[in-house]
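Reopening: structure tokens for the 2-oxoglutaric acid complex, inputs below.
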Amino acid sequence: MLLTENQLDEFHRDGFILVEDLFDAEEMTTALNDMEQIFYGKPYAAYLKKLDETGEVDAVEPTVTNVVAHYGDTEYGRAQFPTGFDALDRLIENEAYLNVFAQCLGTDDVSYCNAHLFMRSGPTDERCPEHPWQGYHADHGTNTFLPLSHAVGSFDYVNSGVYLHDVPDDCAPMHVIPGSHRQAADVLLRGGLDDIRKVPEFAEPIPTSAKAGSALFYSSYLIHAAVPFKNKRKQRAFWTLSMARGDTSRWTKLANPWSGPEQQFFQPFWEKTTPRVRTLFGWPKVGHEFYTETTLKGISHRFPNMDLSPYQV
Ligand SMILES: O=C(O)CCC(=O)C(=O)O
Ligand SMILES: [Fe+2]
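Re-run output (same inputs, fresh job):
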């Protein structure tokens, strides 16, 4: 699947696009069940039951304990990619999803920045600001030290969230300001975003409500905010991924996949995943001259469980 020309124009104009039906329902349910295990140690329904019986539950935000900047762990598992749960980690292998990502970035030379599980849990959620005009920001700083620029389409990168379940309006859909990716650099320089009512050029924020299996793609320059749950018994579970253009990958990334402590998670993931996904992490493509009898032997020593047949020369 590919975006139509109109959809791609919409992405460039608005700085985001919601794409339906990229993932199938069953796949989303399995992934959601695993994500609930990682965050609650049990199904969300059981967590709600405990809340009803006891009147209290613990918050489920992951805590960052690692020296490497990443999203951290929960009491029950790893929220940072790769989590070790196939149903979650293999979402990155979806070809249609990767094709749309490449279209939004405008190149096939795509480079992984960061991925993690993003859970907001209604009963304990504290992520949103007090007033609806507060909390607006761009996520750009997460993966790069460079400030926002006017160079949309080259120096920004693309964030995405995969909807593991339906997110209707009462389920805290992220609010985005259409077109703000082109305004943000100047607005931020002018003194910030404490109160979007003071930014007359901004359009009205709109909710990114969507059904299970959809994905949101948005520029790292796009201004957006969290809103409260209208229904506090709901949770909102996203699988999120940020990717950049290869030619900016030197300065647009989180370095975690290559660092010592992260290798224990990436080694088994790289062993199992597809050649296309490996290229997101800097692996040379199938057919690249790097792959020789010598290097393939070397790879097989370091990654004994990798199927090297696609690379055979
Ligand atoms: O939860 C949301 O709707 C938005 C959260 C957000 O913008 C962030 O964590 O950077
Ligand atoms: Fe954000």
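Residues 120, 127, 139, 172, 174, 224, 226 surround 2-oxoglutaric acid (ligand 1) (CB under 6 Å). Residues 5-253 form a domain with the Jelly Rolls fold (CATH 2.60.120.620). Marking as resolved unless the reporter disagrees.
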